[in-house]
Automatic annotation (TrEMBL), chains A, B:
Membrane-spanning parts: none
Record-linked CDD domains: HTH_ARSR
Organism the protein comes from: Aquibaculum arenosum
Coiled-coil region: none
Sorted UniProt keywords: DNA-binding, Transcription, Transcription regulation
PANTHER family given in the database record: TRANSCRIPTIONAL REGULATOR, MARR FAMILY, TRANSCRIPTIONAL REGULATORY PROTEIN
Name of the protein this chain belongs to: MarR family transcriptional regulator
Pfam family, one: MarR_2
Length: 168, 168
DNA sequence: GAACTAAGTCAACATGACTGACATAAAAGC
DNA sequence: GCTTTTATGTCAGTCATGTTGACTTAGTTC
């Protein structure tokens, strides 16, 4: 029956395939973030705190403007979240040496501990999916997701990849 | 230099790889939804409205409880959004025949028009990424994302795939 | 007839985003 | 050296989307 449909409208399967892609992104992101959300709920933190902790942990010494660029939110939005994290001792701000207007961000030991806890959960999920799918599928996963990302951030990924060497 | 690191700590590359997976999901989802968000902003609708329109369009005649199960939000959250969509003539509710307690949901013509507009934008993004990546990569993308999705929803995908036949 | 289920409602609240206006300090440009 | 730009922060108000909890109404099931 679907074979007939496919013959009548050759675009049908293509649209179906694309819609499945859309749904896969929706469901996988929903379930992927759900894991960490549960951990954060205990600490009265939200997804926004997680993102800050993640990226500050990933790029220690980054300036506030850089972080805003990654998160693509306004500084007013960030300030509440970042303020809480600083106040509760997860993130430390130190004036920049080169440019003393900057407040460079880094995780405290407490912050690193939370970062590890959150990342461990998510890395475990990704690792499970990677193992189940195999190396070739992982390569495809990366290629397609890269294609969904805007030019600028995509470049960052590709640079890191070649700079890191030894990967493929 | 990174080669040395990899030899000293064999887990380094693995962790790096997993973190890249996490970031790919974050950035791709951010950019992927950004496209539709801009269209919705004109109509004073948000992402929540989009999800309702999408899934009602995908499964015409579905009951409210089913929709809640897919979205994994509370009925109170849904009611506001659904109420607006019904009021503004995007979604129609009709009592179920088998079970008259149910209000079965379907898009109106107006709703289908918006659905097409939104989906066209996202399908275009996915299509572009698929084309650039190639069929093999797409298969890997699907496999890995399926592995990130909870058991139950994953089954739904796999059933649809085999039922639809003719795909692979 | 009692118990359960589908759907909806009212109320209060939390989170995370936004715009707009303004303040301070340091850097950069002329 | 004065002006302009930049980095950061703050105050105030608003909006969208989620939550919990309590309760109602109507229909189904046992």
């Amino acid at each position: 029956m679907t074979d007939i449909k496919a013959q009548v409208n050759p675009l049908f399967l293509r649209e179906e395939e694309l819609r499945q892609g859309i749904e896969l992104l929706f469901f996988s992101y929903r379930d992927f973030t759900g894991e960490a959300d549960r951990i954060l709920a205990d600490k009265a933190f939200g997804r926004a705190h997680h993102r800050v902790i993640y990226f500050v942990g990933r790029h220690p010494g980054m300036a506030v403007t850089q972080l805003l660029g990654i998160l693509k939110i306004t500084k007013q939005s960030l300030s509440r979240v970042l303020g809480q994290l600083v106040e509760e001792g997860y993130v430390r701000q130190t004036p920049g040496e080169r440019d003393r207007r900057q407040r460079l961000l880094e995780l405290t030991e407490k912050g690193r501990a939370l970062e590890r806890q959150l990342s461990a959960a998510q890395m475990e999920m990704v690792a499970r999916a990677y193992r189940a799918a195999g190396a070739e599928a992982v390569e495809g996963f990366r290629t397609v997701l890269l294609g969904l990302i805007n030019e600028e951030d995509r470049k960052r990924f590709l640079e890191r990849e070649t700079a890191g060497g030894a990967k493929r």
